[in-house]
Amino acid sequence: xxxxFKGVIFDVDGVLEFQGRVYPGAVETVNWLKEHGVVVRxxxxxxxxxxxxxxxxxxxxxxxLSPEEVITASSATAAYLAELKPRSCWxxxxxxxxxxxxxxxxxxxxxxxxxxxxxxxxxxxxxLNQALRLLQKGAKLIGMQSExxxxxxxxxxxxxGSWVELLARAAGIEATYVGKPNPxxxxxxxxxxxxxxxxxxxxxxxxxxxxxxxxxxxxxxxxLRTGEFSExxxxxxxxxxxxxxxxRDVLKVFQS
Length: 256
Known about the structure:
Blueprint (H helix, E strand, L loop, with lengths): L6 E4 L6 E2 L2 E2 L3 H10 L3 E6 L6 H9 L10 E3 H12 L4 E4 L20 E4 L8 H12 L3 E4 L5 E2 L6 E2 L1 H12 L4 E2 L5 H11 L6 E5 L2 H11 L2 E5 L17 E3 L12
Parallel strand pairs: 1-4, 1-12, 4-5, 6-7, 7-8, 8-11, 12-13, 13-14
Antiparallel strand pairs: 2-3, 9-10
Helix pairs in contact: 4-5
C-alpha cells in the first residue's frame, strides 16, 4: 500500500478533532509525518479562525504546527483578494479570521468587493439588505467557502454558502467561492508546499468538500470514516483513493 507521497493535506474538523476533542492518534500521526520529512499542510473551511489562532489552538493540544502550515478559508480568501488588488472591500466576518484582512482598505458604504464569511450575529435584516443594495450597484461578491450547512457541533446550522447564495440570488449575480472544494484553496496549499500534484494526498471526512475538491484539482484522496462522514455520500462517480476508519491508518500509505 505504500505510496511515494511527499506531502499530505489534512482537513481539521472531523479529521484531527471533532467537536473540540482530538481524535486518538491524531497528534502522533501528524508529528510522525513531519519528523519523517513529509510536508504537512492543514486546509480547513473554517472562516472564524486565522492561521495563527488555528495553529495555536492545535499546538496547545500537542500538534507541532506553525501558522505557515495552516490554510483557513479566511486566509485563502485574503490571499485570493490580494491577487485582485481591491480598491476597497467589506469583509462580513467575525473573530480571529478578520486578522487575515488587515492589509486591505475597508469600506462598508461603497466597496468594490463584498467578502462573506461566518458573520453570525451580524447576518441581520439591516446588514443583509445593505449588502444586497451594494451588490445591485455593482459590488462583486466573494464567498469564503460554499458549504450550505454545518453539523460539526452536533446540530445543523446554516453555513457560509447559504448566506452567500441568498445574496447572490437576490441580487441576480454569481458569487466567486474560494474554500474547498474550489480549486484555488488546493492550488494555494500546493504552492506553499512546493510539490507537484502527484506528490500530495488529501485527507478528509467529507466527500463533497475534501474528496470532490481533491478529485477536481487532480490529487489523490483519503476519506476517513470519522467526523461528518456518511456512507450515503459515496457513489460510483465520486470515490476516494483510500478509505480508512481512523487517522492512524493514514500512516499505512507512508510506511512500508
